[in-house]
């Protein structure tokens, strides 16, 4: 109480200085070195302990996980769909005459399709019977891993394979767009022997069968080639997967079981 | 919650000079003038009064004779004060920052996230709703205040142009000739020109409990002491008087005090200071975190704008949105609880102030005492007998069989002009109203209580003659017929100043027998008189004589003007002494304050002897403690030779106080534990309060009179009396004791201390969840993981699940006897200190955050995103056009699909925080004791636990929540993710508190006891 007066007399600046470093008591921010040491040591030990506990619980959690199949897949009941080539926006706009306007798409498709080369597929994957699921069951306790998947050869895409036409029809104003279904482990996209197929917004389409998918898996694709799309106009295309076993996607998700994109072919 | 000083712009301008002027003593000089001079000054006539024209002219010049009501704050200002005061500022700042962040986002991004906008709106809504709540809460209290106001207009009898007219008291002007009689309220300050047995009760102005007689003569230089001035709004108890009005309205003594009071500015309440300190800490932490991560964000390569948004986001995340509401509700609950115990709190923040109080300056009259003269002692048969002075007649009784007592009772009953007012037969005797002066009333009640109806006694002994008391005789006598119809003698009874009565006596009644008054008996009388006088009591002597029938036969014409009968050679019967006794509960309450470390100082306008006696009676001066004067008397040495340091107690006279310098004053306040200030003026009371505050004390002032109101206003908390208190004092006070019981103050202290402790607990609980709310955002920025906890879920915690448990901590019972510890030191014991922050943020909060993150990682891993893949995924994760993002299993996710998982994570994080907050609320129940010692008897808290869990489940599982709040149903197993962490919190804190109790003052206590 008697100190209040003395403190008042002191300038507020020296008070602040003292609060930071008090030379009389050797206090930095109100604590002596040993006080700082103790509290920092405490927090170090405390946080090390917490980190240990966290690592332990995480380790236990990871032990409960399956290596090949996630615990829950209910959020993936309707697989998403995507197109290739893919820019920032889902928009394929180019001029036939300007090579550089579609050069990017070609590059994109080339990279994307390289794992589909026939040589690679034969080496890695099995040749499965068409229209049948390729299911590799575990036999009791013995897990059948890694699993093999079916071949999907690049040649199956014919004109859109980039083999016969290395510009995927872009140079002629008949662009190919590849449509793929997102991979979901253990998904059986059709039942009763009916294959799912893709329908696109009233344009020309091709249907390819979806296959079951495993390691070294290359996704089955559907190629859409626009043979005589009207030029110089925006064409909105929506492609949809039609399957008797997949739920229709929710309203909110624009990419679950369907995909929309814009196409514009300029002649100049 | 604003400050309580009502300031008008007008006051501010010429303020300082006015205030200094008001603090000086009263400048009235008319009491020293002759009546003619006064008449000349006001152009009035001593017989005719003012002319109507003059009166009208003066009325226009001086304005009506009424006190200007204290400038009332307009309702909208009060409302704004609630809206922008204290804690609200923090939330407002947060809201503005949110809007700013949203504006930046809206300007720079195509599709800005609405989070900041919503957060800003919610923050605004919280402040506005809480502001309205506390505004209405206080409006309710002030409604009760309104009801105190006496709406009956006062009337005054004035003489104008020679005619007596009754006019409204407001129309009285200076110079008016006024007549007052017993029972009237004096309408203005008047200079008495003639009086007949006039007595006024100045207790509301000076605190003197005894009525003062008024006469035309100037008896003292001090206008407050002189007998020829009667003051505005005091009461005329008996007699009649005529006087000239010298001051009206605000210029009266009463008006000056009222103006002084309303002009005083008071500081912030202790809790407001604590909240300010808390805001400093929180802001400090927020800015530190914000700037640190701003710099980090820049280093990590974020753009300036992004970094600014992060900065704002982090600062706002530190704002405890729910705390304002929690604190307000906690204070309101306590205010309600106190109102139930008869403490009405006018200002919500004042709820806590009594708890911090370290000094109570109490007025005596009406606060510590009953404000009712009561017979306390009697001396007869050469022995002092104690009378029962308690309110409920539970005290000691005395032997009533003595013949001397019967004689004494007869004298006291007959020689007494007081009588009960009609129509009160059903009331207990002590509660009945009496017409007559205070000491006669006291005698009347005493006799009525012990001997039955005084009226019947008076009927049996018809009064034949009477000489009323006057200051020259100093006695009162009456002559009565005897009870025995066959006895034709007359009985003369007399009472008065004991020494005068003794002079007239030659014999004395002992054990019912008349004995000659010898030296031995005279000495016994002197001793008794001294002793009773030393108790601060007013002593009256009683004597009687049966007049010899031969000299005064039946029908003798007693002439009271020219006394034609014997008034000496009487028989002394006894002494009776009266005091305004302390209230029954006061000594106990003072004792409790003492043990709670609170210094109780008596500040009274009454005389030192009476004040000291009452102080001793109620324990303000405790047994065995002596004043300097006592020591001097004991050692038989002059006062000047006594070392003042030896005396713990002291009694300071108001006239001495005037001459004291500030240092001397501080010295007295510092070095004496038991202080009584007597004969103090209202201004001096104010100075005493300021002195205590200068020494760092938090001062409570209790009082009921107008003279107390400046001190009440200046005090950190003014406590007025609800029944006996004057309107002015109630206006100035922050708290009102509805039952006038000083003991309620103890309740106030207890509740105040409890709410301070419990607010700490509430804040500790609420702040803890800040860490699990901020860390997700920090990790989102630093390691680029999908956001673990969103704004909506944070709001659900702060304004939803955390609310009831935080409030329920206000119902927590005290851990130890809070009335046994010292008052908190406002410089050291803060509401929120770095230790609380260390525990809440550094320790418990961190465990909580880990619990939340664990749930987050479990959900993502079980859905396919293993922790190793999450780091750095943020840009792809939040890219709307990326609809085939691969998880650790190679599955591909559309934007919406992974967002649903993300929001499920938010929900799980939220639920995890609820789970760890279970443990938090249980550990926050106590600060030192184990929960096993404290028990789980707080039903509200148990309800809170269930409520928050039910709310969390509802938010997660109610259909439609996915659209409304983007919260998704959780798999049952996800509820248990945080359980180990919840358990860890409980165990960790129990161990901490065990160490705390084992090693008092040890490292654990120094670093973690908040």
Automatic annotation (TrEMBL), chain B:
<comment type="function">
    <text>This is the catalytic component of the active enzyme, which catalyzes the hydrolysis of ATP coupled with the exchange of sodium and potassium ions across the plasma membrane. This action creates the electrochemical gradient of sodium and potassium ions, providing the energy for active transport of various nutrients.</text>
</comment>
<keyword id="KW-0812">Transmembrane</keyword>
<dbReference type="InterPro" id="IPR008250">
    <property type="entry name" value="ATPase_P-typ_transduc_dom_A_sf"/>
</dbReference>
<dbReference type="InterPro" id="IPR001757">
    <property type="entry name" value="P_typ_ATPase"/>
</dbReference>
<keyword id="KW-0915">Sodium</keyword>
<comment type="similarity">
    <text>Belongs to the cation transport ATPase (P-type) (TC 3.A.3) family. Type IIC subfamily.</text>
</comment>
<dbReference type="GO" id="GO:1902600">
    <property type="term" value="P:proton transmembrane transport"/>
</dbReference>
<dbReference type="GO" id="GO:0006883">
    <property type="term" value="P:intracellular sodium ion homeostasis"/>
</dbReference>
<feature type="transmembrane region" description="Helical">
    <location>
        <begin position="940"/>
        <end position="957"/>
    </location>
</feature>
<dbReference type="GO" id="GO:1990573">
    <property type="term" value="P:potassium ion import across plasma membrane"/>
</dbReference>
<dbReference type="InterPro" id="IPR004014">
    <property type="entry name" value="ATPase_P-typ_cation-transptr_N"/>
</dbReference>
<keyword id="KW-0597">Phosphoprotein</keyword>
<feature type="transmembrane region" description="Helical">
    <location>
        <begin position="278"/>
        <end position="302"/>
    </location>
</feature>
<dbReference type="Pfam" id="PF00689">
    <property type="entry name" value="Cation_ATPase_C"/>
</dbReference>
<keyword id="KW-0479">Metal-binding</keyword>
<dbReference type="GO" id="GO:0030007">
    <property type="term" value="P:intracellular potassium ion homeostasis"/>
</dbReference>
<feature type="transmembrane region" description="Helical">
    <location>
        <begin position="972"/>
        <end position="988"/>
    </location>
</feature>
<dbReference type="InterPro" id="IPR059000">
    <property type="entry name" value="ATPase_P-type_domA"/>
</dbReference>
<dbReference type="GO" id="GO:0005391">
    <property type="term" value="F:P-type sodium:potassium-exchanging transporter activity"/>
</dbReference>
<dbReference type="GO" id="GO:0036376">
    <property type="term" value="P:sodium ion export across plasma membrane"/>
</dbReference>
<feature type="domain" description="Cation-transporting P-type ATPase N-terminal">
    <location>
        <begin position="29"/>
        <end position="103"/>
    </location>
</feature>
<dbReference type="GO" id="GO:0046872">
    <property type="term" value="F:metal ion binding"/>
</dbReference>
<dbReference type="Pfam" id="PF00690">
    <property type="entry name" value="Cation_ATPase_N"/>
</dbReference>
<keyword id="KW-0406">Ion transport</keyword>
<protein>
    <recommendedName>
        <fullName>Sodium/potassium-transporting ATPase subunit alpha</fullName>
    </recommendedName>
</protein>
<dbReference type="InterPro" id="IPR036412">
    <property type="entry name" value="HAD-like_sf"/>
</dbReference>
<keyword id="KW-1003">Cell membrane</keyword>
<keyword id="KW-0739">Sodium transport</keyword>
<keyword id="KW-0067">ATP-binding</keyword>
<keyword id="KW-0460">Magnesium</keyword>
<dbReference type="InterPro" id="IPR005775">
    <property type="entry name" value="P-type_ATPase_IIC"/>
</dbReference>
<dbReference type="InterPro" id="IPR023299">
    <property type="entry name" value="ATPase_P-typ_cyto_dom_N"/>
</dbReference>
<feature type="compositionally biased region" description="Polar residues">
    <location>
        <begin position="202"/>
        <end position="216"/>
    </location>
</feature>
<dbReference type="GO" id="GO:0016887">
    <property type="term" value="F:ATP hydrolysis activity"/>
</dbReference>
<feature type="transmembrane region" description="Helical">
    <location>
        <begin position="900"/>
        <end position="919"/>
    </location>
</feature>
<dbReference type="InterPro" id="IPR006068">
    <property type="entry name" value="ATPase_P-typ_cation-transptr_C"/>
</dbReference>
<dbReference type="InterPro" id="IPR050510">
    <property type="entry name" value="Cation_transp_ATPase_P-type"/>
</dbReference>
<keyword id="KW-0740">Sodium/potassium transport</keyword>
<feature type="transmembrane region" description="Helical">
    <location>
        <begin position="83"/>
        <end position="105"/>
    </location>
</feature>
<comment type="subunit">
    <text>The sodium/potassium-transporting ATPase is composed of a catalytic alpha subunit, an auxiliary non-catalytic beta subunit and an additional regulatory subunit.</text>
</comment>
<keyword id="KW-0547">Nucleotide-binding</keyword>
<keyword id="KW-1133">Transmembrane helix</keyword>
């Amino acid at each position: 109480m008697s100190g209040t007066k003395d403190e008042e007399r002191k300038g507020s600046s020296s008070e602040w200085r003292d609060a930071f470093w008090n030379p009389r008591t050797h206090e930095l921010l109100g604590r002596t070195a040993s006080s700082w040491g103790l509290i920092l040591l405490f927090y170090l030990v405390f946080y090390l302990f917490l980190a240990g506990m966290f690592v332990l619980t995480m380790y236990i959690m990871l032990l409960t996980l399956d290596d090949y199949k996630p615990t829950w897949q209910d959020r993936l009941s309707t697989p998403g769909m995507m197109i290739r080539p893919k820019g920032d926006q889902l928009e394929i706009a180019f001029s036939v005459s300007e090579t550089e306007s579609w050069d990017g798409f070609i590059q994109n498709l080339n990279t994307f399709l390289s794992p589909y080369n026939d040589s690679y597929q034969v080496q890695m994957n099995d040749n499965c019977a068409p229209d049948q699921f390729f299911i590799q069951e575990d036999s009791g306790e013995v897990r059948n891993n890694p699993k093999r998947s079916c071949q999907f050869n690049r040649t199956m895409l014919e004109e859109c394979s980039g083999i016969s036409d290395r510009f995927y029809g872009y140079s002629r104003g008949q662009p190919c767009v590849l449509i793929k279904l997102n991979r979901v482990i253990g998904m059986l996209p059709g039942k009763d022997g009916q294959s799912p197929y893709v329908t696109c917004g009233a344009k020309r389409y091709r249907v390819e069968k979806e296959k079951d998918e495993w390691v070294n898996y290359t996704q089955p694709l559907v190629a859409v080639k626009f043979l005589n799309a009207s030029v110089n106009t925006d064409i909105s295309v929506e492609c949809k997967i039609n399957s008797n076993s997949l739920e229709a996607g929710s309203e909110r998700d624009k990419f679950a079981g369907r995909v929309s994109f814009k196409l514009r072919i300029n002649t100049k | 919650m604003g400050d309580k000083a009502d300031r008008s712009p007008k006051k501010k301008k010429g303020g300082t000079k006015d205030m200094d002027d008001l603090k000086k003593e009263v400048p009235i000089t008319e009491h020293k003038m002759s009546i003619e001079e006064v008449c000349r000054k006001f152009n009035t006539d001593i017989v005719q009064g003012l002319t109507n024209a003059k009166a009208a002219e003066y009325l226009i010049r001086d304005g009506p004779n009424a006190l200007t009501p204290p400038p009332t704050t307009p309702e909208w200002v009060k409302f704004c004060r609630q809206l922008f005061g204290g804690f609200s500022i923090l939330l407002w700042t947060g809201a503005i920052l949110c809007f700013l962040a949203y504006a930046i986002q809206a300007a720079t991004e195509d599709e800005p996230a609405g989070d900041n906008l919503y957060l800003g709106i919610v923050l605004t809504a919280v402040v506005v709703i809480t502001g309205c709540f506390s505004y209405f809460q206080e409006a309710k209290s002030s409604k009760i205040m309104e009801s105190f106001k006496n709406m009956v207009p006062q009337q005054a009898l004035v003489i104008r142009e020679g005619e007596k007219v009754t006019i409204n008291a407001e129309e009285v002007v200076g110079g008016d000739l006024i007549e007052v009689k017993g029972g009237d309220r004096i309408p203005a300050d008047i200079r008495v020109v003639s009086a007949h047995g006039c007595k006024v009760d100045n207790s509301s102005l000076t605190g003197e409990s005894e009525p003062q007689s008024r006469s035309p003569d100037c008896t003292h230089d001090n206008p407050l002491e002189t007998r020829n001035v009667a003051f505005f709004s005091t009461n005329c108890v008996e007699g009649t008087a005529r006087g000239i009005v010298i001051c009206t309205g605000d210029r009266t003594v009463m008006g000056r005090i009222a103006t002084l009071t309303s002009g005083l500015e008071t500081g912030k309440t202790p809790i407001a200071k604590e909240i300010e300190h808390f805001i400093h800490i929180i802001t400090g932490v927020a800015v530190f975190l914000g700037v640190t991560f701003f710099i980090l964000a820049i280093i990590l390569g974020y753009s300036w704008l992004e970094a600014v948004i992060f900065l704002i986001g982090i600062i706002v995340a530190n704002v405890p949105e729910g705390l304002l509401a929690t604190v307000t509700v906690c204070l309101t609950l306590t205010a309600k609880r106190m109102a139930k115990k008869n403490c009405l709190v006018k200002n919500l923040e004042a709820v806590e102030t009594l708890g911090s109080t370290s000094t109570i300056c109490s007025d005596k009259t009406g606060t510590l005492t009953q404000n009712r003269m009561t017979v306390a002692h009697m001396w007869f048969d050469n022995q002092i007998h104690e009378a029962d002075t308690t309110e409920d007649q539970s005290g000691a009784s005395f032997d009533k069989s003595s013949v001397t007592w019967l004689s004494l009772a007869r004298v006291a009953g007959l020689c007494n002009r007081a009588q009960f007012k009609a129509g009160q037969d059903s009331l207990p005797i002590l509660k009945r109203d009496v017409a007559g002066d205070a000491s006669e009333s006291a005698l009347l009640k005493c006799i009525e209580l012990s001997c039955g109806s005084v009226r019947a006694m008076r009927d049996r002994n018809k009064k034949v003659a009477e000489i009323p008391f006057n200051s020259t005789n100093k006695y009162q006598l009456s002559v009565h017929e005897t009870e025995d119809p066959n006895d034709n003698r007359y009985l003369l009874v007399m009472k008065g100043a004991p020494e005068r009565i003794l002079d007239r006596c030659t014999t004395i009644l002992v054990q019912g027998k008349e004995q000659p008054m010898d030296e031995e008996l005279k000495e016994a009388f002197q001793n008794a008189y001294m002793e009773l006088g030393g108790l601060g009591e007013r002593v009256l002597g009683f004597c009687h004589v049966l007049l010899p029938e031969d000299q005064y036969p039946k029908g003798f014409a007693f002439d009271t003007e020219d006394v034609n009968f014997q008034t000496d050679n009487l028989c002394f019967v006894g002494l009776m002494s009266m005091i305004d006794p302390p209230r029954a509960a006061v000594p106990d309450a003072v004792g409790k304050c003492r043990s709670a470390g609170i210094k109780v100082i008596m500040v009274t306008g009454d005389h030192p002897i009476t004040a000291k006696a009452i102080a001793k009676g109620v324990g303000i001066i405790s047994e065995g403690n002596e004043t300097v004067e006592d020591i001097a008397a004991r050692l038989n040495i002059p006062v000047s030779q006594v070392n003042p340091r030896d005396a713990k107690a002291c009694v300071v006279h108001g006239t001495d106080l005037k001459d004291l310098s500030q240092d001397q004053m501080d010295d007295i306040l510092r070095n004496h534990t038991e202080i009584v200030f007597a004969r103090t003026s209202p201004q001096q009371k104010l100075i005493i309060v300021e002195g205590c505050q200068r020494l760092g004390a938090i001062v409570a002032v209790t009082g009921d009179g107008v003279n107390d109101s400046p001190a009440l206003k200046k005090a950190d908390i003014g406590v007025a009396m609800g029944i006996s208190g004057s309107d002015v004092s109630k206006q100035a006070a922050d708290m009102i004791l509805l039952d006038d019981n000083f003991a309620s103050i103890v309740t106030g202290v207890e509740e105040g201390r409890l709410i301070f402790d419990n607010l700490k607990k509430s804040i500790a609980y609420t702040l803890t969840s800040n860490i699990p709310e901020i860390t997700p955002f920090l990790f989102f920025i630093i390691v680029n993981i999908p956001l673990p906890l969103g704004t909506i879920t944070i709001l659900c915690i702060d304004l939803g699940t955390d609310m009831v448990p935080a409030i329920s901590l206000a119902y927590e019972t005290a851990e130890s006897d809070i009335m046994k510890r010292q008052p908190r030191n406002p410089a050291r014991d803060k509401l929120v200190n770095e230790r609380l922050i260390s525990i809440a943020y550094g320790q418990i909060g961190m465990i909580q955050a880990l619990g939340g993150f664990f749930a987050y990682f479990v959900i993502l891993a079980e859905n396919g995103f293993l922790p190793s893949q999450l780091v750095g995924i943020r840009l792809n994760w939040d890219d709307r056009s990326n609809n085939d993002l691969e998880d650790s299993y190679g599955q591909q996710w559309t934007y919406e699909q992974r967002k649903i998982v993300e929001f499920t994570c938010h929900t799980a994080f939220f639920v995890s925080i609820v789970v760890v907050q279970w443990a938090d609320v249980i550990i926050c129940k106590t600060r030192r004791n184990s929960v096993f010692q404290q028990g789980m008897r707080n039903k509200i808290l148990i309800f809170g636990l269930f409520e928050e869990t039910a709310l969390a489940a509802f938010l997660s599982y109610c259909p439609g929540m996915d659209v409304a709040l983007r919260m998704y149903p959780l798999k049952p197993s996800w509820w248990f993710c945080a359980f180990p962490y919840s358990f860890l919190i409980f165990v960790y804190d129990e161990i901490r508190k065990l160490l705390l109790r084992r090693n008092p003052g040890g490292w654990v206590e120094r670093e973690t006891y908040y």
